[in-house]
Specification:
This protein is mostly beta strands. It has four domains: about 120 residues, Immunoglobulin-like (Sandwich), CATH 2.60.40; about 70 residues, Sandwich (Immunoglobulin-like); about 100 residues, Immunoglobulin-like; about 100 residues, Immunoglobulin-like. Helix content is about 5%, strand content about 55%. The longest helix is centred in the first third of the chain and has 19 residues.
Length: about 425
């Protein structure tokens, strides 16, 4: 019974002693595990820097009167505690800041009694470095390295060194996106803009270090828009270059896909598919004939050491479409001066040549219209060919016969015949 009481009293005193010693600002508190089996000590970890100690210990006065404190620090070589500092009189707490890493012994006395406390502090720091190597047109390598604080303590009896693992977590980020969790990582398909990569190392205690490195891009990025992408031939298309980080360009305009297929069939698969090339930033091109046309932009960047990088892009929508030719003819018009349907208007699309002849019921040609170079959007959309007059005089109301002969930009012959009714009454 007596032995049990003594053990209980020792545990209470030990708990009280620990409660009297604290480590404000520490991120972790551990317990040592001395190999010699001697009584273990509390250990406090602080996030610090290589040139600035943040470790702090604070001892509370266990007495009812003023006390003094003698601070000693373990000398790992000799195994003895040596004087560090002292406080002559304090009533509540005595705090020491900026402590170097080590084991501290604090003796608090009121003149008649002395209470002793011990604790380890470790100023935990990490230093990181980052570089970029092996940069070319296809990839580059992010290289991270680090040094850190000595995370260890000494058994005060056996003088054995006990290491504490840091368990570092590695994170490479581009903006908010994580790109790797390893110190050395290869980035394929590099960005076409100068880009900052951030390396963060965090240990299991929550201490971390950050460093950034800038990738100076060697890579162009091809991009462009077209306007319009579809319309009737002849179709004038504006190509706007939106490429990044390039100093030279090559536009390749390909032949109509049906023409390419036809030539390939005739020549056992061998075909020159290129219609024309340009080496300027922006271009305009008029597609004279109907068809479906591919477009490619090659962006080029010349870097130091004769390293030339390229990127290409085909038109995202697939093809420039110059529409197929057609002719649409009304069956009635009313040339009565009310500005509504006053002309015999023929709608067409993608024509090269266009001819209209008007006949009366006995086959006599009364009027003709011909355009052998249909090129403007107005002419190729609506041809107001006849105003209902013959030699300046109003033609009689009735039925007239028309013959239309046209050749499309797709080289197809378009011929239409039929009747149109002329009404003059309002």
């Amino acid at each position: 019974m007596k032995q049990s009481f003594i053990l209980f009293l020792f545990l209470v005193l030990l708990s009280t002693a620990k409660a009297q010693l604290s480590a404000p600002g520490s991120v972790t508190s551990l317990q040592t595990n001395y190999p010699s089996g001697t009584t273990n000590d509390p250990l406090f970890v602080f996030c610090a820097s290589a040139d600035y100690n943040t470790a702090t210990l604070e001892v509370r006065n266990p007495f009812t009167s003023a006390a003094s404190a003698s601070w000693k620090k373990l000398n790992p070589s000799s195994g003895t505690f040596e004087y560090y500092t002292s406080t002559s009189a304090f009533t509540q707490t005595d705090r020491q800041t900026g402590l170097p890493s080590g084991l501290y012994q604090i003796e608090v006395s009121d003149g008649s009694s002395t209470v002793t406390y011990r604790a380890w502090v470790i100023n935990n720091w990490i230093k990181t470095e980052a570089t970029i190597t092996d940069s070319d047109c296809d990839h580059f390598i992010l290289n991270g390295s680090y040094t850190g604080a000595d995370l260890s303590y000494i058994d005060p009896i056996s003088h054995e060194k006990v290491a504490i693992s840091a368990d570092y977590n590695v994170s490479w980020k581009e903006g908010d996106a994580v790109v790797s969790h390893t110190l050395k990582t290869t980035i394929f398909s590099p960005p076409s803009e100068n880009t900052t990569y951030n390396l963060t190392l965090t240990d299991k205690f929550g201490c971390n270090a950050k460093v950034s490195v800038v990738y100076n891009s060697l890579i162009p990025s091809a991009d462009f828009t077209v306007s319009p992408a579809q319309g009737e031939a002849p179709l004038l298309v504006k190509f706007t270059n939106l490429s990044k980080n390039a100093d030279r360009y090559t536009w390749t305009l390909y032949k109509d896909i049906d023409v390419i297929k036809t030539e390939a069939e005739k020549n056992s698969g061998k075909v020159d598919s290129v219609m024309q090339q340009f080496q300027t930033s922006n271009i305009e091109y008029k597609y004279e004939n109907s068809g479906h046309y591919k477009v490619k932009l090659l962006a080029i960047k010349t870097n130091p050491d004769n390293l030339t990088c390229r990127d290409s892009l085909y038109l995202r929508s697939g093809f420039i479409v110059a529409d197929t030719s057609w002719v649409e003819v009304p069956n009635v018009f009313t040339p009565n001066g009310d500005n509504v349907n006053d002309r015999f208007t023929i709608k067409t699309q993608s024509l090269k040549t266009f001819k209209v002849s008007i006949f009366n019921r006995w086959g006599r040609k009364l009027f003709s219209y011909e355009n052998n170079n249909v090129s403007s959007s107005t002419e190729t959309t609506a041809h107001g060919v006849w105003d209902g007059k013959i030699d300046g005089k109003y033609a009689s109301p009735g039925v007239y016969f028309y013959v239309i002969e046209a050749i499309g930009r797709d080289n197809r012959s378009r011929k239409k015949t039929g009747f149109v009714h002329l009404f003059r009454d309002k």
